[in-house]
Amino acid sequence: MADTFHRVTGTLWLHPGRKAILKAARIICAGGLVAFPTETVYGLGAAAVNPAAVAGIFAVKGRPADNPLIVHVADQSQVDRITSSVPEKARYLMEKFWPGPLSLVLPRSSAVPDQVSAGLSTVAVRMPDHPVALQLIDAAGVPIAAPSANRSGRPSPTCARHVLSDLAGRIDAVLDGGFCRVGLESTVLDLTGPHPVILRPGGVTREILSSALGEPVLRSFWNGVAAPPSPGMKYRHYSPMAPLILATGPRIRRLRFLDNLAAFYRNRGIKVCLLNQAFDKGRVEGEQDLAKRLYRELRRCDDEHVGIILAEGVSIRGIGAAVMNRLGKAAVRVIRV
Ligand code: AMP
Ligand code: MG
Q1: CATH class of the domain at 244-336
Q2: Which of 38, 63, 69, 122 to mutate to test the pocket of ligand 1 (most atoms within 8 A of CB)?
């Protein structure tokens, strides 16, 4: 693609070629903020070793300071720079799943500023599976801290237009790599305890991880009272503007329930969006496609001024666990029928 750019209310919109990536890398090195594509969602990047730049991420997103960031790396030496020890299990998973949608929580080194890990003694690290992301980190020569490139609480962006609709004028640049392949955030796996624990389900599923490790992989939930195992768990996330109601339970019952609910709202002149109905739940491609399209659909509901979103629950097998996690967090109400 040609090295072209234009400016959207102060933010450079870059079409990634060699020159554009070098320009973005220079912005990162100078302490600026650049949104970039990854295979999961778009990230909002800053040099992970620059506390002021990292503070900028929290400010423009409106992100609570106690919610740590994932650090993105392009090679093994960057992992060694930001961690204090890397267990065998972690090396094995990096070998097998990187680059890819798997973030590993490891003990952090003193090179990581407190802001990145919100004062925790650990740091989450991953290598994204996207050529633009890898070239950017490589050109910058530093690991890049990057949460999703949306205003806090909004659905994550899966294309450059979504990034700009939340952050135009607030960030220095966005590298436009088209739509993201996975469409949901990475799996966050904690490797600092006796057993591997999934803190957030994502692109690499629990089934795949336990079969790779040959041991059970636990899934962590927050009881809403004690300190959450991962700070992100306590925040409502991924929310479209319209309220979202999620229906779970046997398929026939939930479809009938949602149809009745849709009729109820339509009769009152409220614009309804029925999410998920088109998918055949028996097919894995269906669920992966659903994951890929979820945030795009939620943002489309905003654009079309939908009044209420009615979503059908899916099976929590495979990538379905990540889809249900995000739908549950987006929902104002979850109803089991
Ligand atoms: P985001 O980058 O917006 O997709 O969010 C990153 C997620 O990873 C949040 O849910 C964080 O709470 C979680 N996370 C990042 N670093 C750590 C860490 N060191 N320990 C536990 N969870 C983390
Ligand atoms: Mg996020």
Answers
A1: alpha beta
A2: 69
